[in-house]
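Human:
I keep going back and forth on a fold encoding question. Comparing notes only helps if you start from a blank page. Show me how you would write down a chain together with its backbone fold. Write it directly below this note and I will take it from there.

Assistant:
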Amino acid sequence: MRVAAIMRDERYSLGSADNDRRILKAAVEALRSLLRASAKPADDTVLVSEPTDDADFVSESADGTDLVEVDVMAEGALDVRKPETDIILSMARSPKALAVLSECKKDGATVLNSPLAVENCSRARLYQLMSEHQFLMPATYLDGINCPSDANDSQCSGAYWIKRADDSPQGGDDVMFAADSAQLALARERMKQNGTARWIVQQHIPGDLVKYYGVRGRMFRIFYPTDDGEGRMGHERHNGPARHYAFDTDKLKTEAERLAALTGTVIYGGDAIITEDGRIYMIDFNDWPSFSRCRAEAAQAIAQAAIAQMPRPCGESPGKPGTPG
C-alpha cells in the first residue's frame, strides 16, 4: 500500500505551520496503524519522519513481499513530481497542486480532501453555495457589489469584514475588519492594490465566536478561541470574550455537516457566531484545519475516512480495509 502526505505550503498556514505539520503526521501515523492492523505483516515496522520537501519512507516484511510506503511531500514538490500512490492525504491549496491531485484522482487514487472540495471552499464559491442553500449567514456581498462605501448607505452601516475570495488567505491583508464605512473603503482599496481579483464584504455580527472542527460523519467538536487563547491573527478580539450564550449545538453540527456535504469536504473546520438569542450565523468554512485542540481524535477520524473511501472488491465490507498491496 502506497500513501502520500502532502504538506501545506507555509503561505497558506497563516502562522500555524507547526500545527499543520503535526496533524498531517498524526493522520499518517493513524492511517499506517489501520493498514498494519488489516495487513498483519510479518514485520510491521514503518519508518515515518517529520514532513520534508521530498522524502520516501518504506517498510517491508522480513521476506520483502509486503510493502507499506509513505511519501511525504511539500505542496510545491507537486510542480515537478506526481505521487504514484493509492491514498493521498493532502493539505495542499495552490491551484497548481490541485491540478496535479486531480490527475491523481482520475488515475484512481483516494484523495482527501478532494481537489474539487478544496476549490469549493474558496469564498467566492462557498458563499454562493451558502446563499443558494439558505444557510443563516451575515449579509454578504461578492466583490462588494451593491455594498458601496457611502457612509449614508444603510446597506453598509456599522462594522464589516472584507475577505479575499479568489484564493485561500495568505496574509494579514487577506482578511480585514472595518469598523465603519470609511475603513471599509480603505480596506477595499488595499485589496485592489494587493492585486486581489475577488473579495467579499460581510457584515460583522456581534456575539460569541465559536470554532468548529469536523471529519464528516465521524467527529465534530466546538471550541471558544477566547477561552483558551489559541486565536489566530487577533481577529477574535472584535467579538470580545465569549459570553457562552445558550444555543443548539446539534443544529450547528447539522449545518456544518450539511455544508461539508455540499462542498464535498470530508476534513473541515470553520467559524460561527452565536448571538445573544441563540441564532447561529455561519461565517467561515475551511478545508483541513490544524485541529490543534483535538488532534489525536481528528487523526483517527481522518484515517478511518481515508480507509472508507478506498476502492474495495465487490462484496467486501466498507468497515474493513482491503489488504494493502
Summary: Residues 17-39 form the longest helix (23 residues). DSSP finds eight helices and 13 strands in the chain.
